[in-house]
Amino acid sequence: MSFYSIDGIRPQVDPSSFVHPTASVIGDVIIGKHCYIGPHASLRGDFGRIVLEDGVNFQDGCIAHCFPGGETRVEQNGHISHGAVLHGCVIGENSMVGIQSVIMDNAVIGSECMIAALSYIKPGFIAPDRSIIAGSPAEVKKTVTDQQISWKTEGTGVYQHLTKRCLASFNRCDPLSPADKQLTGAALDIKHFKPLK
C-alpha cells in the first residue's frame, strides 16, 4: 500500500495519475492530473504540504519533504529525475531537476530551468526563468536555449505517456524463463509524445 494518513490528513491524488505501489505518499500531499510517481519515491506531507501540479513526473527514489508549516511545490510539467531530493522549495513550470540533485529550503527555481545532475541548491537560492544551474553549491551558468527546452518538454511528454501505459497495463507478474519467447516493445520515438498544455 502506498498511501498513509497522519493526524487525520490523507493524500489527494487525481485518478489520471499513476503512483507506483512501492512509493510512499504520506499525509498532506496533493498530486494533480497525469502525474507519474516512480518506484520507491517518498512524498512526506507529515510536517508541511507537498504539491505536484498537473503533468509532473517524480521518478524512482525521489524525496519531497519540508520543515513544519512549509511547502514543497513542483509546478506544471516539472520533471524530477531519479534520486533527487526536494526540501521546502519551489520548482517552476516545465523545469527539470537532474539526477540526484538536492534543492533546499526556500529555493525558488523559475520556469523552464534545467538543473544539472548532482547539483546542490543552497537554501534561499533564486533562479530566474530559463536558467541552466549546476555545481555544488550550484550557480546559474547560462540561459536555456529553445532547443534544450524542446528536448526537455519532449522528455516530459514521454513520462506522461508512461503514466497512461501504467494505468492501462501495469500488473504484478511472474517472470518468463529463458526458454519462453516474448515480443519486445518497439523503441519509443519521443517526438510522438506531447506534454500537457
Automatic annotation (TrEMBL):
Domain of life the protein comes from: Bacteria
Molecular function terms, GO-annotated: transferase activity
SUPFAM superfamilies reported for this sequence: Trimeric LpxA-like enzymes
Pfam short name (any one): Hexapep
InterPro entries tied to this protein: Hexapep, Transf_Hexapept/Carb_Anhydrase, Trimer_LpxA-like_sf
Keyword list, A-Z: Transferase
Lipid biosynthesis as UniProt keyword: no
Name of the protein this chain belongs to: Transferase hexapeptide repeat family protein
Organism of derivation: Marinicella sediminis
Lineage: Bacteria, Pseudomonadati, Pseudomonadota, Gammaproteobacteria, Lysobacterales
